[in-house]
Amino acid sequence: MKILVLGAGGVGGYFGGRLAESGVDTTFIVRPRRREQIARDGLVIESPNGNARIEAKTVLAGEVKPGYDAVLFTCKAYDLDSAMDAIAPAVKGETAIVPMLNGISHLERLDARFGSAHVMGGVAQINATLRRDGVIVNGDNLHRIIFGERDKRVTPRAQALADAFARTNVEWKLSPDILQDMWEKIVFLSALAAATCLFRGNVGEINSAPGGREAMLQLLEANEKIATREGFPPRAQPMQNFRERLTDANGNWSASMLRDLESGGPVESDHVVGFMLDRARRYGIDASVMSLAYTHLKTYEARRAAARL
Q1: H or E segment to which residue 173 belongs
Q2: Rounded CA gap, 72 and 99, in Å?
Q3: Is the CA virtual torsion 206, 261, 225, 246 positive or negative?
Q4: φ, ψ of residue 119 in degrees (nearest 5)
Q5: Least packed by Cβ within 10 Å: which of 84, 101, 185, 301?
Q6: What are phi and psi of 245, to 5 degrees?
Q7: Catalytic site residue from 2, 185, 225, 298
Q8: Claim: this prediction has a pTM higher than 0.85
């Protein structure tokens, strides 16, 4: 199988790197500076699941050509338009796009650009960042990727992708119901992002503050109701895991959106929090904490935009 990976940052660099490490034909679309870095140092991964230095193949956006079986589509939502432009020359014939974005709403835009037949579903579960020196750092043992056809079929291309990941040390799953998995992720992630950005702290710090635990649970309960109204009621075991993780008094984790916000970067406010808030209002679900978080994020975006003028 021949795979194209959009970017060589935290998510794309990690999962694509593990594919390349295992001998799968993998190429990364990167910017010139990142290309030079990889040519000089290799694609470097530091992880409790094993360190690696990989001789990775790269292309610039203008060099992309057809011939790939799958595209791992690992961008942020605010880069969606330019990312679609970058992969467009590769999407021909039976090429599968496997989006690893947070949320749900990107599927509609990918379908409109490439046709739904090209677009699978996907979920990345990993704490990975790209350090300034170009090293991809996997912060804990979690390195799971889930993918599948949105119509629940096990197609030859889905099986081929599963066979490719089976060669790696990554935890992977060919999902029989990828949309269910995607909805469950946003139920958790939207609550985590809303809380950690609104309160500017990690899970443990929020839970130690008066009202923090209650706010976490209100966010999670609202999101559970939204997913249920959308036809994807979260399963009991994932919900139990979400409650435990969001109310862990010792939890030292936060959403990557908080790290983006604190570094002064763009954030996925509309794609992750705004999307769920819109659904809550549509269904008359109490989402008062989520509403405050969204206002906070949009205020940050307004100030950031003004500072860049």
Answers
A1: strand 171-174
A2: 6
A3: negative
A4: -105, 115
A5: 301
A6: -70, -35
A7: 185
A8: yes
Quick check: is 185 catalytic?
Answer: yes
What is the sign of the dihedral through the CA atoms of 81, 98, 137 and 208? positive
Tokens describing residue 229: 């109204």
> CB burial class (10 A; 0-12, 13-18, 19+) of residue 303?
exposed
- Whether residue 127 is predicted with pLDDT greater than 90 in this model: the reply is no
Which pair of tokens denotes residue 194? Answer: 């809303």
Residue 107: its pLDDT value, please?
A: 96
d(CA 248, CA 237): 17
Tokens encoding 40: 């000089």
Helices (H), 150-202: 156-166, 178-199
- Tokens (6 digits) for 170: 């990554």
Backbone angles phi, psi at 172, to 5 degrees: -135, 160
- For residue 288, the 8-state DSSP code is H
Q: What is the pLDDT of residues 152-187, one digit of tens each?
A: 999 999 999 999 999 999 999 999 999 999 999 999
- The type of residue at 175 is S
> Which one, of 88, 67, 129, lies nearest residue 6 by Cα?
88
Question: In Å, what is the CA distance from 173 to each residue of 122, 134, 178?
Answer: 10, 28, 10
Unique residue bearing structure tokens 């409650």:
243
Q: Which two tokens stand for residue 29?
A: 């679309």
Beta-ladder partners of 5: 28, 72
The set of residues, in sequence order, having a beta carbon less than 8 Å from that of 239 and lying 6+ positions away, is 187, 220, 224
